Automatic annotation (TrEMBL):
Chain positions found as 4-aspartylphosphate: D59
PROSITE patterns: RESPONSE_REGULATORY
Keyword field contains Transcription: yes
Entry-linked InterPro entries: 2C-system_Tx_regulators, CheY-like_superfamily, DpiA-like_HTH, Sig_transdc_resp-reg_cit/mal, Sig_transdc_resp-reg_receiver, WH_DNA-bd_sf
Gene3D superfamilies to which the protein is assigned, alphabetical: 3.40.50.2300
Localization per record: Cytoplasm
Main location: cytoplasm
Cytoplasm among keywords: yes
Name of the featured protein: Transcriptional regulator
Location of the Response regulatory domain: 6-124
Keyword field: Activator, Cytoplasm, DNA-binding, Phosphoprotein, Transcription, Transcription regulation, Two-component regulatory system
Pfam families with a match to the protein in the record: HTH_64, Response_reg
Length: 240
């Protein structure tokens, strides 16, 4: 499914706003509509735009608006817009209030780009599942909300993963492998499947190789370098 989700960035520091723009547009399926630097400008944009954004990246610390007032103003008037808070605010009251108000996620600055990317990928999955289905199974809901089972579960969790490897994405890649045939998948193909960069896809693939979940196989063509494909280890062993 090919769809671009529109994003409005509300960030008082124009340099930070530009960095956030670059991060957003590196993730396949997202396009920044605009960046605004004040609460007044944010509300003016929303009031006058012909098409509302799908998603707002909202800083809580905005000079012309006190606390979470801007958040509640947007939520009250534009309840159909999803919100991800991206802020330096760490107060429990702020976190609790915004989650009660229905935010999709809360990201504390300065943040890891990988964490930011995973949130956008999860949001994309969330939206696509809602638009493609009339009903969702518990498993599908768990994946969308980022539900993590206890550490003694067979499901991969964040407790035993290295930095840069997210359990939600990893489980999604495992699911894709089970659906693929014996030819496996390349890093380029996987990056298109999960909507991320080739380097990110390769990082996950090499991690799965390191824990003996998958194997690599070189496919030699008539010209050029051999193609590096990744296949499930059990499939690889069956065909040796």
């Amino acid at each position: 499914m090919s769809q671009n989700f529109s994003v409005l960035i509300v960030e008082d520091d124009f340099r930070v706003a530009e960095i956030h723009r670059q991060y957003v547009e590196k993730v396949n399926g997202f396009k920044v509509m605009d960046t605004v630097n004040s609460g007044k400008d944010a509300l003016h944009f929303l009031k006058n735009t012909k098409c509302l954004p799908d998603l707002i990246l909202l800083d809580i610390y905005i000079p012309d608006v006190e606390g979470v007032n801007l958040f509640w103003e947007i939520r009250k008037t534009y309840h159909e817009i999803d919100i991800i808070v991206v802020t330096a605010a760490k107060e429990v009251e702020t976190i609790q209030e915004t989650f009660r108000g229905g935010i999709f996620d809360f990201i504390v600055k300065p943040f890891d780009n990988i964490r930011f990317e995973q949130t956008l990928l999860r949001y994309k999955d969330f939206r696509q599942q809602l638009e493609l289905n009339k009903e969702l199974s518990q498993k599908e809901i768990d994946r969308i909300i980022g539900f993590q089972e206890l550490p003694n579960s067979a499901t991969i969790t964040t407790t035993n993963l290295p930095k840069g490897i997210d359990s939600i994405t990893l489980n999604e890649i495992n699911r894709l492998f089970k659906e693929k045939n014996i030819e496996g998948i390349t890093a380029v193909e996987l990056s298109k499947q999960i909507g991320t960069s080739r380097s990110t896809a390769r990082r996950y693939l090499e991690y799965l190789v390191s824990i003996n979940k998958i194997e690599t196989k070189l496919i030699y063509g008539s010209v050029g370098r051999p193609e590096r494909r990744y296949i499930l280890r059990e499939t690889y062993e069956q065909n040796e």
